[in-house]
């Protein structure tokens, strides 16, 4: 009965090979290229859940360039390696926020820009394993913050630069709070803007600043 669920080209061995359409036993469907029985090349895969992937495959795995539309209305467009979001890509969240930058092992990892749709603010900087971490700049409407992030929050020395031409130097102090355990989540969640405690030290005229001058805070 299962063989009727495929309509398309085959090779001399009878394997799916070339272009075809298939309905999978779980109700998902695939239309696109096959190589020796496996999804390889360009294709569109529709999940019964309403999700959809269109892009490149290699031996049944998402690999190369592709766009994934998630059931919650979010979408990822970019590089895939071995079924994971990996390389460079843009993710648009259900709430309208966007992340554009590097991915590794399905998570935001490397250099990337996150734009908060509601405020228009932007985080431009490093990410580690899905979380804001390392030297970064947060650009608001009429001022910006330059500093370092640790575990998703600003920490240690940094400065605010105001468009009218001055800077406020200071540091972020982390208030301790107990954290619950994180659940494994397939869909990356939007990033919440957070406010640890800022302690101002001095106000100066504009000065050049590079995050590499600072020693990273010890965890």
From TrEMBL:
Keywords: Cell projection, Cilium, Cytoplasm, Cytoskeleton, Flagellum, Meiosis, Repeat. Residues 7-18 have a biased composition (Basic and acidic residues). Residues 1-32 are annotated as: Disordered. One of its GO terms (cellular component) is nucleus. InterPro entries: MORN (IPR003409). One of its GO terms (biological process) is axoneme assembly. Its main location: cytoplasm. It is found in: Cytoplasm, Cytoskeleton, Flagellum axoneme. It comes from the Eukaryota. Pfam families: MORN. SMART domains: MORN. Gene3D superfamilies: Histone H3 K4-specific methyltransferase SET7/9 N-terminal domain. The keyword Metal-binding does not apply. Functions as part of axonemal radial spoke complexes that play an important part in the motility of sperm and cilia. This is Radial spoke head 1 homolog. It comes from Neopipo cinnamomea. The gene is Rsph1.
